[in-house]
Amino acid sequence: MPRSGTTLMRAMLDAHPDVRCGEETRVIPRILGLNSQWRKSAKEWNRLQEAGVTDEVLKSAVASFIIQVIAGHGAPAPRLCNKDPLTMKSAVFLSDMLPNARYIFMIRDGRATVTITGFDLSDYRQCMTKWNSIMEVMDEQCTTVGDKCLKVYYEQLVLHPEPQMRRILDFLKLPWNESVLHHEEYIGKDVKLSKVERSSDQDVLEEVDQLAPMLRKLGYDTSRNPPNYGKPDELVSKKTEDLHRNREEWYKKAVEVVNDPERVEKPLPYPN
Q1: What pTM did the predictor assign?
Q2: Are 215 and 209 in contact (CB under 8 A)?
Q3: Start-end of CATH 3.40.50.300 domains in the chain
Q4: In sequence order, which residues have a C-beta less than 8 Å from that of residue 115 and are 6 or more positions away?
């Protein structure tokens, strides 16, 4: 799901010396969407079969396209990853084509995620029902893929980065490396943050049980507003303190790596 921490996740993985993710390709979800349309239309699917474009031919072609895009849009590395969030809607199909691939399903409280472009924030009901339907599909896809798909909660990754990253790297069969805990030092250097990728704003909405039952299914407490996700680890507290104390330096760095500098809030005075 877009705006669920996928940019943070890929930046942390990109900081690992054995991994290269890179920016969103934007074309992979589109080719997967076309593939889905072809298969849903009986008329179109029959035409493809009659033309000799069988299931195996199509799978092979789509797999080759995806591999070429992932491999070709950045520097070579021992392990490659793709950050396009909506590919999780096709995880079962991808798993069939790419049996050695592993999938990370980023989950974030929908009351924050609905600030995503494409949601009409003037229509609260539309926001949460749309989030719910997409998450329902992705959750089912991840569950069907089984032990090749790992569910990662954005809030827990932010509050407890080391245990979460150890769990993630173990799932990916990658050696532990401290650099993943200091990914911010690599932004603009080894880690290239797309100037059009957006990280997320927090927007807490109320009364969502009927509109978004997936919130409770995924373990979120919908009775609290604002939500309480727990206390941060010491490392996170120290980095937050550093962010406040060196706010001017971090502000300048943020302006350098985003497409629209006006979106970056200017730092407030730090209390003595």
Answers
A1: 0.81
A2: yes
A3: 6-230
A4: 3, 121, 200, 201, 202, 203
pLDDT tens digits along 227-260:
888 888 888 888 888 877 888 887 787 777 666 7
pLDDT of 180: 93
**Catalytically annotated residues:** 24
CATH of 6-230, picked from 3.40.309.10, 3.40.1380.10, 3.40.50.300, 3.40.50.10350, is 3.40.50.300
- What DSSP state is assigned to residue 213? T
H helices, E strands: number in the chain: 12, 4
Structure tokens at 204: 């807490």
What mean pLDDT is predicted for residues 65-83? 94
Token pair recorded at residue 180? 């993943």
Per the DSSP assignment, residues forming a β-bridge with 105 are: 151
